[in-house]
Amino acid sequence: MEKQEALINWFKKNTEGYLLFSGGFDSSAVLGAAMKANANIQPIWVNNGFNRAQAGDMIIQARNLGAADLKIIEVTPGETVIANPERRCYHCKSHILSLVPKDGRTIYDGTTASDLGNYRPGKKALDEYHVKSPLAELGISSWETKEIALAFGADPLFAEHESCLATRINYNELLTSERIKAIYEVENYIIDKTGDFHVRCRIDDSDHMRIELTKPESYALITDEKVREELFEIGGKVCLFVTIDVKRSRPNEYDKRIKK
């Protein structure tokens, strides 16, 4: 594949640094290319309590791509991040980047060409820390990174599983551990039963939890009264109402209201 080779060649010129590694397809494509180019790139996975994947899975994913050592950074989100303002991602990303070793080496990430037109306040933090995004630089889309990552040996189950659960809670609603736990449990409940990795359990306000589904199997699943009771048992701990969205899973609708 032409873009796969271009990515490998890119790392033959950019040979040292740190990679913000999530284990998803985007950063997996970057890590795989760096390893193929024999670049001295240290992948870093951040555990800030918002992850849907687990550290053990990410260690395996990094090894799948040729990296023997995955550096894990434990992060406790600050008050500003927990308050969940519209620029939460900027504050969160800034905190994470501040913890990367300051030895003059470049930091890389998995931002793709597809991401550039979306609402991404974290991009400002990337710019401030001079983070390089090879996928975006080479015009590689999110669709293309999946194929590239798989070619390098990424496990699709691990890649699909990783997601930031902080994005599920509407802006200015607190990112409490109880809410994150409920979202994690609802999404994994549905994933375990249907393999619907695109499920999104969203909290719109203190009263309303809304579950977005993608697979027909997921919609069939919720026709079972016992399943609905079990989902409410989880979601009812943090919200008064637990509902199913009639539209399929999609990017955060609230971002459309924000002036970029």
TrEMBL record:
Signal peptide: none annotated. InterPro entries: Ni-pincer_cofactor_biosynth, Rossmann-like_a/b/a_fold. Gene3D superfamilies: HUPs (3.40.50.620). PANTHER family: ATPASE, PP-LOOP SUPERFAMILY-RELATED (PTHR43169:SF4), EXSB FAMILY PROTEIN (PTHR43169). This is Exoenzyme S synthesis protein B. The lineage of its organism: Bacteria, Pseudomonadati, Bacteroidota, Bacteroidia, Marinilabiliales.
